[in-house]
Amino acid sequence: MDAVTRIKTKTPSPYKITAIEPDTHDTKTFRFELPADATLDMLPGDFLYVHATIAGKSVKRAYTPSSLPGVTGFFDLTVKRYATGVISAYLHDQRIGDTVLISGPNQGGHWVDGMAKRVGFVAGGTGITPMIAIIRWILTKRIDAELFLIFANKTEADIILREEWRQAVREYPNFHCHHVLEQPPPGWPEGTGRVTADILRRHLPAPGSDTCIFLCGPPQMVDALETTLKELGYPEQTIVLP
Ligand SMILES: Cc1cc2nc3c(=O)[nH]c(=O)nc-3n(C[C@H](O)[C@H](O)[C@H](O)COP(=O)(O)OP(=O)(O)OC[C@H]3O[C@@H](n4cnc5c(N)ncnc54)[C@H](O)[C@@H]3O)c2cc1C
Predict the structure, then answer these.
(1) Whose CA is nearest to atom 17 of ligand 1?
(2) Is the predicted pLDDT of residue 176 greater than 70, yes or no?
(3) pLDDT for residue 2 is more than 80
(4) Tens digit of pLDDT for each residue in 54-103?
(5) pLDDT per position as a tens digit, 113-146
(6) Which among 34, 76, 89, 97 has the fewest CB atoms less than 10 Å away?
(7) Closest Cα to residue 124, out of 143, 150, 85?
(8) Is residue 112 part of a domain?
(9) Residue to mutate, 20, 90, 126, ligand 1, most ligand atoms under 8 Å from C-beta
């Protein structure tokens, strides 16, 4: 078997964009080129920094690759554009063939094979991004674990990778998904409003020695739900933040 080069850098290096796929009205997936025999040296959930000089100031922001860890030749970042966002707007203004300065990977709240048999994911908006690679990894590697995703968004149009979650529910009996919308369309059959203790109780695996819960979203949501999870009996060390 050919040797694979595993890439991890502390200093920013230029990576060329080879494809840009729109996902929702404000989210795109950017594909970056790696040498054909190279992969990022990361576990699912680890993150990179995108660096840029904007208006004379050096800025960097964290992004978790959404591509499957271990793939060679490329990696993907799925990025939501914020109207007043510095780096997200900069990325969304890039075109195929442009290069972007990126460093890492760095250790995030990642998945390690065997860490749990029942895995809950509570995501708000772009909080799904650290979970994409983890969910894809566990499902495609057929790892023995049951997955429970609660995904909160404002509207149906904001759901990142909507079709992938629908497809995964059909394809993998061990994947369960519950969407919660603040502004649901008429007749919406799933959760509405904010994520509550009751929604967590119904749609997550019960606390236990073989259970862990990944939690990521806007800071107020994470603070509130971390407290709620602890009140529901999930020990602090089983709640994984990005
Ligand atoms: C470990 C980690 C991994 C991440 N991975 C991803 C990823 O894969 N994809 C992705 O799109 N983002 C990801 N993020 C968020 C990302 O790092 C930036 O915070 C985001 O892109 C906004 O940066 P910006 O420079 O565009 O906006 P900024 O200039 O920092 O902020 C501008 C405005 O946008 C609003 N804003 C910024 N971030 C958020 C937010 N998360 N929720 C609500 N409002 C916000 C602020 O209120 C502010 O007014 C990750 C964050 C962390 C910590």
Answers:
(1) 62
(2) yes
(3) no
(4) 999 999 999 999 999 999 999 999 999 998 999 999 999 999 999 999 99
(5) 999 999 999 999 999 999 999 999 999 999 999 9
(6) 97
(7) 150
(8) no
(9) 126
Is omega for the bond preceding 105 within 30 degrees of 0, making it cis?
A: yes
Let me know: does 149 contact 199? Beta carbons within 8 Å.
no
Ligand 1 centroid, distance to 214 Cα (angstroms): 18
Could you tell me the distance, in angstroms and rounded to a whole number, from the CA of residue 118 to the centre of ligand 1?
29
Residue 43 domain boundaries: 5-106
pLDDT in the model for residue 83 = 87
111: in domain: no
Is the domain of 132 the same as that of 215? yes
Based on the fold, state whether residues 209 and 179 are members of the same structural domain: yes
Residue 70 and residue 16 share a domain: yes
Q: Which CA distances in Å does 5 have to 17, 63, 113, 168, 190?
A: 20, 21, 21, 31, 44
Distance from Cα 187 to the centre of ligand 1, integer Å: 32
User: By the 8 A CB rule, do 88 and 52 touch?
Assistant: no
Give the other-Cβ count within 10 Å of 41's Cβ. 15
Interval 188-199: pLDDT, tens: 999 999 999 999
Give me the number of domains the chain comprises.
2
Boundary of a domain, candidates 57, 78, 106: 106
Tell me which of 106, 138, 159 is where a domain ends: 106
